[in-house]
């Protein structure tokens, strides 16, 4: 079932993002708190918010495919940005993160087909409603 594959990929993404040095050394341990000084000044706010939103994998499993798809799209954006930062060519690189990206992109394409078959127009909702910004805007800091 595609939902299981998405939750599996999200679990791997969480592990990957939690290993970012800025998350590992975070005084908040990657837990975003808007009124705490470390979070206000931090450039990893977007990743921490994502980790917080996806902290409970059991609740993710209860979400619908469209919601899972949105969360996976955000995770893909985070991992893609990191791969670019390190100069990886995710199309050919064999590192774990780039392999994850290829699988995630393939899964996103499949979820789009499934969503489109279930409800025409649903897959386009994903790209219209998902914020995949990789750096926080000034009002998020």
Furnish the topology, listing elements before pairings:
Blueprint (H helix, E strand, L loop, with lengths): L1 H17 L2 H4 L12 H4 L4 H9 L3 H5 L3 H21 L10 H23 L3 H8 L12
Helix pairs in contact: 1-6, 1-7, 6-7, 6-8
Structural account:
This protein is about 65% helix and about 0% strand. Helix 1 packs antiparallel against helix 7 and helix 6 packs antiparallel against helix 7 (about 95-120). It has one domain (about 1-135). By secondary structure, it is mainly alpha-helical. It has helices spanning about 1-20, 20-25, 35-40, 45-55, 55-60, 65-85, 95-120, 120-130. It is built from eight helices and no strands. The radius of gyration is 15 Å and the shape is globular. The N and C termini lie far apart (about 40 Å). Residues about 125-140 have low confidence and may be disordered.
């Amino acid at each position: 079932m595609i939902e299981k594959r998405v939750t599996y990929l999200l679990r791997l993404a969480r592990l990957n993002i939690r290993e970012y040095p800025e998350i590992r050394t975070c005084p908040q341990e990657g837990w975003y708190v808007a009124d705490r000084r470390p979070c206000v000044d931090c450039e990893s706010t977007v990743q921490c918010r994502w980790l917080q939103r996806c902290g409970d994998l059991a609740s993710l499993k209860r979400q619908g495919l469209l919601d899972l798809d949105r969360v996976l799209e955000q995770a893909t954006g985070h991992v893609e940005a990191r791969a670019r930062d390190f100069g990886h060519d995710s199309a050919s690189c064999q590192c774990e993160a780039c392999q994850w990206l290829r699988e995630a992109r393939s899964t996103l394409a499949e979820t789009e087909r499934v969503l489109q078959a279930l409800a025409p127009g649903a897959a386009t909702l994903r790209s219209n409603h998902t914020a995949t910004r990789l750096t926080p805007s000034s009002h998020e800091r």
